[in-house]
Design a protein that fits this description.
Blueprint lengths: L2 E6 L18 H8 L6 H8 L13 E6 L7 E2 L4 E5 L4 E7 L13 E4 L5 E6 L7 E8 L3 E5 L4 E7 L18 E6 L1 E9 L6 E7 L2 E6 L1 H19 L35 H4 L5 E4 L6 H14 L7 E6 L1 H18 L22 E4 L2 E7 L25 E5 L2 E2 L2 E2 L1 E5 L1 E2 L2 E2 L3 E5 L20 E13 L6 E5 L1
Parallel strand pairs: 15-27, 16-18
Antiparallel strand pairs: 1-13, 2-11, 3-10, 4-9, 5-8, 6-7, 6-10, 7-8, 12-26, 13-14, 16-19, 17-18, 19-27, 20-21, 22-26, 23-24, 25-26
C-alpha cells in the first residue's frame, strides 16, 4: 500500500533517499508516482498491469513487430467482369498481383468460392505480370456472377485425381505482417528557487521511502498528462509510405521518409487503429445492437472469436450513452414494466452502475478516459455534452494476450538496466538540491533546474482487433 505525504527538507532528505536518483533502483516507486494521477487512464492502466514491451531499442528510434494474420491470402479481382459458365466449362478471371496482392496465391487444383457462392477448380496459373495474372478456372456448378474490382475469391480446399504426381501439388506460405512505429522524445523542466527547498513530498511503498521537491509536482503532473495525450493523439513524422504497415498497398518493412523540419515522432493509439474498424452511432441514441455489431466485427479479427476482453475508453457522453443503452436493454427484458421493492414504507434505492457487458462470448469493460472530456483540447461542452467534442468517442482496445505477449504495451528506449521511459535530473546553480553550502555549481543561476524526459512509444500489436465507435 503506497503512502504519500508532505514534509520538510532536512537530514533525511539526502541523495541516497531522493526519488530522482532511485527511479531505476526502485521501479515500483515510479509506478506509484504515476498512479497518483488517475486521469491518465491509458498510462495508468498499462503501468499498473506491468504492460511494458520486451523489445530492446539501443541504436535506433524505430521499433518493429510482427503480426501473423490468416495463413492463406485471398485472390482479389483486378477488373470487373460477368461470369456465365455452365458446370464443367472453363473461364478466365484477371486477379491482382503485386503491391501487397497475391494473384499467384492460387495453385492448380485449388477449389475456390466466388462471391455468389459458386465454386470452381483452378486449372492454370500462368506466370503473373507486374500488376495482374489471368487465372483459368473450370466451373464445378453453374456460375452466374457479376464480379467487380476488389471482390475476393477464396480458396476452400483442393481436389486431385487418384495417382496424382508430387509435381502437380502446389504450395503456399504466408509471412507475418510487419508493423513499425517510432519513439517520441518528450521533455519539460522547472526552476526551483531557494525558497522552494523546504517543501518536499515523500512516497512510501514496499518498504522503500523516497522524496522529491513539492515544486516538482506540478511539472510532473503536466508532463505525465502530456505523455498521456501523446499516447492517444500522436502522429508519426514520416511520410505515408512508411510507419505502421497496415495497408495492402504498403510493402512490409517499408522505412518511410522523414518529414523535413520535424523531430522524430511516433503514432499514438488512435492513429494505429485500422481505419476499417471505425463506425459511428447517433449521439444520445446508442443501442445494445450497435455494441453487439461492433464487438462482432472486432472479434472476427482477434486471435480467438471468444474469450476476448475489450477495454472501452470513453468520455462522459459515451458513459451516458452506454448507461442508456443498458437501461433500455433491461426495460426490454422486463417487458417494459419496472419493478420496485420497498418494505414497510421504507426508502427505495434505485439505479445501477453499468460498467461491463458480456456478449458473443466476449466482455467489454467501460473505462473513463478524461482526455476525451478535456475542453482545452476539444470544443467546449454544453450541459448535454455537445457531440462536437470527443466526449462520445468509444475506443475498443483488445487488452488480451497473444502467445504470452500483451496486445498493447508501452515501449521505451533502452535495455539491460538502461531505460529512458522516465528520466529526471537536477542541474544545480547557486542553489544546490542536496547541499546548500556546496562550492560546486553547473552555472551561476540563482536556482537549480529539475528536468524530465521520456523517450517512449506505444505498441498496438494487432490493430485489426481494436476499433473506434464515435458519436455523430
Amino acid at each position: 500500500m503506497a503512502k504519500i505525504y508532505t514534509g520538510t527538507y532536512g537530514k533525511d532528505t539526502t541523495d541516497e533517499t531522493a526519488l530522482v536518483t532511485n527511479l531505476l533502483k526502485y521501479p515500483e516507486i515510479g509506478k506509484k508516482l504515476i498512479q497518483q494521477y488517475p486521469r491518465f487512464s491509458l498510462t495508468y492502466l498499462l503501468e499498473a498491469a506491468g504492460r511494458n514491451a520486451a523489445e530492446k531499442i539501443i541504436g535506433d528510434y524505430a521499433f518493429e513487430w510482427k503480426m501473423m494474420g490468416r495463413y492463406r491470402k485471398p485472390a482479389v479481382v483486378h477488373t470487373g467482369e460477368t461470369l456465365a459458365a455452365s458446370a464443367g466449362a472453363t473461364f478466365d478471371v484477371v486477379i491482382k498481383h503485386g503491391s501487397g496482392f497475391f494473384g499467384d496465391n492460387l495453385n492448380v487444383n485449388d477449389v475456390v468460392r466466388f462471391p455468389s457462392g459458386g465454386t470452381a477448380l483452378v486449372t492454370s496459373v500462368p506466370t503473373p505480370g507486374a500488376s495482374s495474372n489471368t487465372i483459368v478456372f473450370r466451373a464445378i456448378d453453374a456460375l452466374s456472377d457479376v464480379l467487380v474490382a476488389g471482390d475476393v475469391i477464396g480458396c476452400i480446399g483442393s481436389a486431385f485425381n487418384q495417382g496424382s504426381l508430387a509435381s502437380e501439388v502446389g504450395q503456399n506460405y504466408a509471412y507475418p505482417d510487419t508493423y513499425k512505429n517510432w519513439l517520441t522524445l518528450s521533455r519539460k523542466k522547472t526552476k526551483i528557487m531557494g525558497s522552494d527547498l523546504t517543501d518536499v513530498t515523500w512516497i512510501e511503498s514496499n518498504g522503500h521511502r523516497l522524496w522529491y521537491f513539492t515544486k516538482e509536482q506540478q511539472m510532473t503532473d503536466q508532463f505525465m498528462y502530456e505523455l498521456e495525450l501523446q499516447r492517444w493523439y500522436g502522429k508519426k513524422s514520416y511520410a505515408e509510405s512508411g510507419g505502421l504497415v497496415t495497408s495492402a498497398d504498403d510493402y512490409p518493412g517499408d522505412t518511410g521518409t522523414p518529414i523535413a523540419g520535424l523531430p522524430i515522432m511516433g503514432d499514438g493509439l488512435l492513429a494505429q487503429i485500422d481505419s476499417a474498424n471505425q463506425a459511428t452511432y447517433t449521439a444520445g441514441a446508442l443501442t445494445e445492437e450497435d455494441i453487439v455489431n461492433f464487438i462482432g466485427t472486432l472479434s472476427k479479427n482477434a486471435l480467438n472469436p471468444e474469450g476476448n476482453v475489450f477495454t472501452v475508453f470513453t468520455g462522459t457522453q459515451g458513459r451516458i450513452d452506454f448507461h442508456r443503452a443498458m437501461k433500455d436493454l433491461l426495460v426490454t427484458l422486463g417487458s417494459g414494466t419496472p419493478v420496485f421493492a420497498g418494505k414497510d414504507g421504507g426508502s427505495v434505492s434505485l439505479g445501477a452502475n453499468f460498467s461491463e457487458y458480456n456478449i458473443l462470448g466476449n466482455k467489454m469493460i467501460l473505462a473513463y478516459c478524461p482526455v476525451f472530456d478535456d475542453d482545452n483540447l476539444h470544443a467546449s461542452m454544453s450541459s448535454t455534452f455537445d457531440s462536437s467534442n470527443e466526449s462520445g468517442k468509444m475506443v475498443f482496445v483488445d487488452m488480451g494476450m497473444q502467445n504470452g505477449v500483451s496486445n498493447v504495451e508501452l515501449i521505451a528506449k533502452g535495455a539491460e538496466g538502461f531505460n529512458r521511459s522516465f528520466v529526471k535530473k537536477y542541474v544545480p546553480g547557486m542553489v544546490n538540491p542536496y547541499d546548500y553550502n556546496s562550492m560546486m555549481a553547473a552555472n551561476g543561476d540563482d536556482f537549480f533546474e529539475c528536468q524530465i524526459l521520456s523517450e517512449s512509444g506505444i505498441i498496438l500489436r494487432n490493430p485489426l482487433s481494436c476499433g473506434i465507435l464515435s458519436n455523430s
